[in-house]
Structures are given as C-alpha cells and as structure tokens.
From TrEMBL:
It comes from Cebus imitator. It is found in: Golgi apparatus, Golgi stack membrane. This is Galactose-3-O-sulfotransferase 4. Catalyzes the transfer of sulfate to beta-1,3-linked galactose residues in O-linked glycoproteins. Good substrates include asialofetuin, Gal-beta-1,3-GalNAc and Gal-beta-1,3 (GlcNAc-beta-1,6)GalNAc. Pathway: Protein modification; carbohydrate sulfation. The keyword Nucleotide-binding does not apply. GO terms for biological process: glycolipid biosynthetic process; glycoprotein biosynthetic process. The chain crosses the membrane at residues 20-39. It is a single-pass type II membrane protein.
Length: 480
C-alpha cells in the first residue's frame, strides 16, 4: 500500500475522529499480531461497519447509475451491488435484467413499483441496471436528490467491444465481415432503426436517452425520439442544479443552458431550430451536465473511482473491485486515448470509429475534460496517492480471493454462481475463488467475484423472498 497522505486520510476517514481511528486500528493490528497465524491471511478492511463512524460526512445511499453499454459499467455495477447488499439498501430492479431496453426507461418496469399514492411502497435506494435513460420516468422511482452518475468510454474502444459482443445482435455488424470493413464503409451496412443497429453507432448517446440530430434519424421506422411514442422528454434544469431542480419544460427536447433562467417558458425543440450539429451536441451535453453529478471515464477508471468515493463520502474500500465483463484475447490498443504505440492500421480504425460515432466522441471529450477539471480540484498528487492505494488493495484482494490472482477463462469456471453470462464472439472472463478461505473472507470474495446477472438474482431473491403459504389451521373455525 502507498503511504497515507494526511490530506487523503482526512478526506476519507474524517478529521474529527482521525485520532480515534488510528487508535482503534493500532489496537486491532496489535490484537491480530498477537493472534497471529490465520489472521494474517484475513482481508484487512472487512469491517465496513466500523467506517461510517469515522466519516465526516454522511455517505450518500440514494443512487442512480446509468449503466451504459460496453464501457466498464459492469465493474461499477458490481461495487454498487456489493455496497447495497452489505448495507441492506433497496434496489429498483428490472423484472429480468434490463428495463425494457432499447425502449426508453419506464417506471412501470421496476419490480414492485407502485405509482405514487398507490400503496405503502418503501423508497428505492439504488437504480443501476441497463436502461435507456429517461429522466422523467426515473424521477417516478428515485428521489430527485439522488446522486446521478454514469460512465463513458472512448468510442474507438467501445466500438471494438460492441462489435465482438453484438456481432449477431446488430444487423449492421452481422452483415460486416470485420470492424475494419464496417468502419471503412459503414453506410453499406448500417440502417438507422434496423434491428439492433443502435449498438453500431453512437451507443452512449443512445443510452443517455438523447435525441438524435434530424439528419441522423431514420427515414422510416426508427427508435429515435421524434417518432418514438416513448420519446424522451429532456427537461431544462438550471446548470449545475442537478436532478433535484424542477423540470421546467417537459415537452421540449434540448435547450441551451442560457435559457434556463426563463422558467416556464415554452422553448422550441431543436427540431424547430435550424441549428447545426454542433449546437445540437452542445445543448445535449449541457443538459447532461445539469442532470448528472459525475460521469466516470473508463480509460481513467481508478481515478474515477476515487472521485466517486469522494463524492459519495464512501471509503476507498467501498469502490475497490474486480474488472467484470472483460472479453478474452482483446488487444488493449484501442482502449488507449492516445494514439502512441498503435499501428497505422489501428490508428486509422480509431480515427474512423471516432468519426462514425461523432456524438459519442463529443460526449467522451466533454466528460473526459470534466473529469480532469475535477481531478485538478481534488488535487493531482492526492489523487495519485489514492489511486495507488486502491490498486494495491485490489491486487491484495485478487491475490487473496482468486485462483491465480486474476480472471479466468470461463471454461474453467465450474461453479455456476461465478460463471459470467457468455455472449458474443469472444469469451467473457470470470473468477474462480481460492479454497480454504475463512467464512467471512469467503463471503466478501464471493461478493467481489459474482457476475452481474447472478448478483441481480441474489438481490432479487433477498428483496422478494418467496411467499410461503401457511397451511390453514383446521382446528379453528374459519369464520365466527
Ligand atoms: N475497470 C475497467 N476499466 C476499463 N475497462 C473495463 C473495466 N471493467 C470492464 N471494462 C471493459 O468494459 C467492457 C465491458 O463493458 P460493460 O460492462 O459496460 O458491458 S455490458 O454492456 O454490460 O455488456 C469490456 O471491454 P472489452 O473487454 O473490450 O469488451 C471490459 O473489458
């Protein structure tokens, strides 16, 4: 582990109780030393219940995570599942695994949801499974002061991941022999509105529920807002006010931030403006800024995690996890933001993927910039220290929990609880737990290794225990 910088320690553990915390840890460490043997192998921070007492701010536990596709979102989901599970939080779960995707999110898709006033429903704490974002409906399920966040990935890396995963799902990808062939002439394969073709272009933009510029909409059948009966209603929110702000104009699509002071005025949708793509994009981004409290960047995953922990007032241990949903044998070349080290062919592919997915590229550049602005505020050195600690912690957990200390080929994963769902043309890697773990460590390692579908089922079973119908007592009359 890296050295504990005082600033970082203060931030994560809270200034007031620092002395107490140190005292407690030293005592625990001393007792463990005395006990020796097996306790050396025990995972150190397995007592999260100790932590909140030391935090200077209350941890945020009302969360909306927009799980974008092929962007590292399953790794984020994993930590949300674990955190919610440990703290007994209530998830807004889909009946199956997604909320009617690719249709826009509808509150009625949430298991156990009752419209307001329609019963004694307990509030939900976390909404985090795949959806096409639809703020108005999300606010039917989640409190407006929830923490809204998401993740984006370089469209070049995302395209590569999506091509192999959705090869048989997207008609454009299916028709194309390779990603290079597709990107060399995408219009030969791609038909907007054709089955699964939202996976083939601007998938992030689509998942964020944003409307597409008029020139990109399908000529006939499409999934895009203007013709979709479930069209997204992008409300104008005061810049930086977050989702708690009042939705000002539910019938409009996108509005410039500069107009938001004009509460209640009917502002025409972009379709009625003759605006160029670039203003269209800018307005979409401004709207997202007003809704999302944080957008993580897959290429800076660990940096994003540190910022997430900071924003949520969670401990670093709450955001340490393993990578999920990685496809085997993937070159990491296109995952890098910089072109250095890429072959000329890869560079061309990268450039073409970004150009084809121009809305996603704009989204990515925008949120990459915001992330770095946030890092500046947080402090680069402080961040580096926290990232180093997080990585050391992850490595220690992997060594302790996993056979080989790393992800495994699914063919070796015989325990179905840990075998990730296999889809697409590449194998999806998973984890095999070491044997001989203590019961406590076994539990924590299982949480870390459980793939998203199995974890969702586990949470579902916990939240909706099967109702046992008790046998009627025949000795008593049924009615007086
Ligand atoms: N921590 C971290 N950092 C960077 N990249 C990561 C991370 N975790 C997962 N991944 C990569 O994200 C891809 C899977 O994304 P998702 O989990 O969003 O996919 S899915 O839509 O839920 O199927 C998948 O990409 P490919 O392997 O390129 O397909 C994962 O490798």
């Amino acid at each position: 582990m890296g050295p504990l910088s005082p600033a970082r320690t203060l931030r994560l553990w809270g200034p007031r109780s620092l002395g107490v915390a140190l005292g407690v840890f030293m005592t625990i460490g001393f007792v463990l030393q005395l006990l020796g043997g097996p306790f050396h192998r025990r995972l150190q921070p397995l007592a999260p219940s100790l932590r909140p007492a030391f935090l200077s701010c209350p941890p945020r536990q009302r969360l909306v995570f927009l799980k974008t596709h092929k962007s590292g979102s399953s790794s984020v989901l994993s930590l949300l599942h674990r955190y919610g599970d440990r703290h007994g939080l209530r998830f807004a779960l889909p009946a199956r695994y997604q909320f009617g995707y690719p249709r826009l999110f509808q509150a009625s898709r949430v298991k156990g949801y009752r419209p307001q006033g329609g019963g004694t429903q307990l509030p939900f704490d976390i909404l985090c499974h795949h959806m096409r974002f639809n703020l108005k409906e999300v606010l039917q399920v989640m409190p407006s002061d929830s923490f809204f966040f998401s993740i984006v990935r370089d469209p070049a890396a995302l395209a590569r991941s999506a091509f192999s995963y959705y090869k048989s799902t997207s008609s454009a990808f299916r028709k194309s022999p390779s990603l290079a062939a597709f990107l060399a002439n995408p219009r030969a394969f791609y038909r907007p509105g054709a089955r699964g073709d939202h996976y083939a272009r601007n998938l992030l933009w689509f998942d964020f529920g944003l409307p597409f510029p008029p020139e990109m909409r399908a000529k006939s059948r499409n999934l895009h807002p203007s013709r979709d009966p479930n069209a997204p209603e992008l409300q104008v929110l005061p810049s930086g006010a977050g989702p708690q702000a009042q939705a000002l104009n539910p019938n409009a699509l996108i509005h410039p931030v500069s107009t938001v002071a004009d509460h209640g005025s009917q502002i025409p949708s972009p379709a009625s403006f003759h605006m160029g793509s670039s203003s269209f994009i800018q307005w979409g981004l401004a709207w997202l800024d007003s809704v999302f409290d944080l957008v993580m960047v897959a290429e800076y995953f660990d940096e994003s995690l540190v910022l997430l922990a900071d924003a949520l007032c969670w401990g670093l241990d709450d955001v340490v996890g393993f990578m999920h949903n990685a496809q085997a044998g993937r070159e990491q070349g296109l995952s890098t933001v910089s072109n250095s080290g890429l072959t000329a062919e890869d560079q061309q592919l990268t450039a073409r993927a970004r150009a084809w997915n121009n809305l996603d590229w704009a989204l990515y550049v925008h949120f990459n910039r915001s992330l770095w602005a946030r890092i500046e505020k947080y402090g680069q050195r402080r961040l580096q220290t926290a990232v180093a600690e997080l990585r050391a912690r992850r490595q220690a957990l992997a060594k302790h929990c996993l056979v080989g200390g790393e992800a495994s080929d699914p063919k070796y994963i015989t325990d179905r609880r840990f075998r990730p769902f296999q889809f697409g043309s590449a194998k999806v890697l998973g984890y095999i737990l070491r044997s001989g773990l203590s019961p406590q460590d076994q539990e924590e390692c299982e949480r870390l290794a459980t793939p998203e579908l199995q974890y969702k089922d586990k949470l579902d079973a916990k939240q909706f225990p099967p109702t046992v119908s008790l046998p009627l007592k025949t000795s008593r009359p049924l009615s007086p």
